[in-house]
Design a protein that fits this description.
Layout: E1 3-7, H1 21-27, E2 32-35, H2 44-49, E3 55-66, E4 69-76, H3 83-109, H4 116-123, H5 130-139, E5 164-165, H6 166-175, E6 179-182, H7 196-204, E7 209-213, H8 219-232, E8 235-238, H9 258-271
Parallel strand pairs: 1-2, 2-3, 3-5, 6-7, 7-8
Antiparallel strand pairs: 3-4, 4-6
Helix pairs in contact: 4-5
């Protein structure tokens, strides 16, 4: 088995339609792919309908708050029809639109010649997100969008958003019959890294795994995360975090060991 547990489609901020992901996964030699769009299951029906030859794991990537930083939590093997989780995701998505509109306004106030219509065209029906705004900024020559000058967390054009605490998000994922895996906890592209102490706290709250092998985490970071996972009794996963043309990452660039996948699946069954 070749397993990738983190990928996005046009249902959130990816550039690949969910109906195309199974074919691309098969071409990449994958046998299992988790569809983990940001705060939505909207792409799942199309991915499942086209899934001949590859297993599609129902998943979601939830935006969370951990102390003073934003982190992302993968919910894997979740029931997409679970009402409490669905209601919280709807609230997050609705707030994302409000935030996106205001961020475009702030960019314009700072002199960027972009419009909401341009950003909505880039989003192509997906909930507005910072990658869509960044693409609009890049189109007018502003290539440093994710900095304090523009739309990085706390940047001049940033707008606070509604977020769950990570502990509450873990509880929702477990209630929906799934397992919670912390995504890219020490990505070099993020301003903050999740500490060993924070990981221990999340493990006590029901976290099942941490994404150790990820394209944005150097080899020495991956090794340390695997060691911490072993110390805390967590599973160490690997994933591409595929976004189509939006990131220079290919499906299956990082993968999860079959025995880790089997353990996560068994844990999800026991929770549900």
């Amino acid at each position: 088995m070749t397993i990738d547990l983190h990928a996005h489609s046009t249902a959130s901020d990816g550039t690949t339609p969910p109906s195309e992901l199974p074919r691309l996964a098969t071409e990449a030699g994958l046998t299992v792919l988790a569809l983990t769009d940001h705060d939505t299951f909207a792409g799942l029906p199309a991915a499942l309908a086209a899934s001949a030859g590859v297993e599609i794991v129902p998943g979601v990537e939830i935006s969370c708050r951990l102390d003073d930083a934003e982190v992302h939590l993968l919910g894997l093997f979740v029931d997409p029809g679970h009402q409490p989780l669905g209601a919280e995701l709807e609230l997050i998505r609705t707030d994302r639109v409000r935030r996106g509109v205001r961020m475009v306004e702030r960019c314009r106030e700072l002199g960027a010649p972009i419009t909401l219509a341009q950003v909505e065209t880039i989003a192509a029906g997906a909930p507005l997100g910072r990658p869509h705004i960044a693409a609009a900024l890049a189109a007018v020559g502003i290539t440093d969008a994710f900095t304090s000058d523009w739309i990085a967390d706390g940047g001049r054009a940033d707008v606070p958003k509604h977020v769950l605490s990570t502990v509450d998000a873990i509880a929702l994922v477990r209630a929906a019959g799934g397992v919670a895996v912390l995504a890219h906890p020490r990505s070099v592209k993020r301003r903050t890294a999740v500490s060993d102490t924070q990981l221990a706290t999340l493990a006590e709250a029901g976290l099942s795994g941490i994404e150790a092998d990820h394209p944005e985490q150097p080899v020495q970071v991956r090794d340390r995360l695997r060691a911490v996972a072993a110390e805390l009794g967590l599973r160490a996963t690997g994933s591409s975090d595929f976004h189509g043309d939006r990131k220079p990452v290919r499906l299956g660039e990082c993968t999860t060991a079959p025995e880790v996948f089997a353990a996560l699946r068994a844990s999800a069954v026991s929770v549900s």
